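Re: the multi-chain job from yesterday

Posting the exact lines I submitted so nobody has to dig through the queue logs.
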Amino acid sequence: MNLTQQIINGLVLGHAYALVAIGWTLLLGVARLVNFGHGQMYMVGAFVTWWAVAQAGVSYVLAVPIAMGVGAVFGLVMQRVMLKATFEKNLVSIMIMTLGFGYVMHGAAALVFGSTGQILETSLSLHEVNMGDLWFTGQDAAIVIAAIALFVALKWVLDGTRIGRLVRMVAEDPKLAQLAGVNVRRVYYGVFAFEGATVAFAAGMVAPRTPILTSMGFEEVIMTFVVVVFGGIGSVKGSYFAGVALGLFTALFGALVSPAYTTAAAFLVLIALLVLRPGGLTSGAAGAH
Amino acid sequence: MSTQVEAMAGPVLQVQGLQVAYAGNRALDLAALKVGRGEVVGVVGANGAGKSTLVNALAGWSRGDPRVSGEVTLDGTRIDSWVPHERIRAGLALVPEGRLVFGRMSVEENLSTAFVPPAGPGRRVYSREEIYDLFPRLKERCQHLGSQLSGGERQMLGIGRALMMGPQLLLLDEPSIGLAPMLVAQVLGTMRTLAGQGLSILLVEQNVRAAIEVVDRLVLLERGRVVLEGPAAQMGNDPRIAQAYLGAHA
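And the result, structure tokens for all chains:
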């Protein structure tokens, strides 16, 4: 076994986890909401990208923004339907509704795209980089770069811009934000659109690594949940490091112990962490930061 | 222009038939209330008299889930069907009781607005520097987090943020609660300064003795209804006020 190669695999996988989770991080941090349709939104993002490239003949560079647009619209529609429950912070209803949206998306995607697996090929995924025994694809490098860029950008927007300040106001106290003149509803819509767009972006970046199926999504939503909780709910920095840590853990555990028990082992670590540090890796106040 | 002059001449706030109920229990039943331009009106009453309910209902805002009906007119415009942030942007600012600053943001960040307030007749938009002039204490603590401030500093910060939104009418809910007497005098004294600069203020206070020093007019609420209303000078001599709140024995 080549340890360096496993670390590279882990880093790529970890940045993929982080990228898929970034929208949920903000969603949980700002609106205190969960979206169990997240995995199916990932699936739809992957299929829209695939459809645009393979069926409509659009270039990959254009296909990803198209998928992001579709993802944002899905996010907005979901939020419109759940608006009342959002304001009432009715988590149980929201859990069930988002789970339901996931199944609807799954069914609709199977109708539209069929149930056979597809391969999303990009010029980057076909480009291999070999350095001695080490190996990765151009797509792998793009995932790492895109994840870092997106996390840095999100952190900067949250901390340093007017929009970020409004989002943090709503995250801390939506009622008080109203009195500061913030249109809280619009912020909720924006956060859902962001989640939809970023998970579609992640799908467009990550899905070329594996065959895509309309039945996928469960793995993604579970891993996202782990990353977000592990990182400290709502913490942007925490989610990034949690994603990378989970990726490294998965790659190394898979190589050194057994790939069959990786998820079980990851959850054991998560449970232990939640007992020892209930606030996650970056424990402190919850909320977008 | 003439309509503007007319609007300027009328009261800044006019309320008619305002009723509020929580889960079927009536908390407020207000026949009518007016606040004139540059006027400071105090609302006093015992716990549970409906004082907070009143100012929250004017802003269309609550941490609870009340049912509100009635007419609220701000500067000649009916606003009772508007959502809170629209009322705030129209110039009706509320400094609530309790959690009134963003604890995870610095003083400086708290003193920034979510929108560009329109300055205009009767709407003075205060800059951050003017707020620091008004409350020098905030300037000293500008890099501190909201959660690190004392009760008095939070009051100042809440008032400061409200002033930066260019209010025509400032609603203050128990600004003196939990403050040392010196600070009560300072915070309430600032109200006179602000009114002198043209701001209209509706001040909810339990501390009648302090309120009577700064308000032009006093409204006494009991069980959600106005039981007494008049100029502050006369009200101080009214035996009902004196007996109930100034601790005098008749």
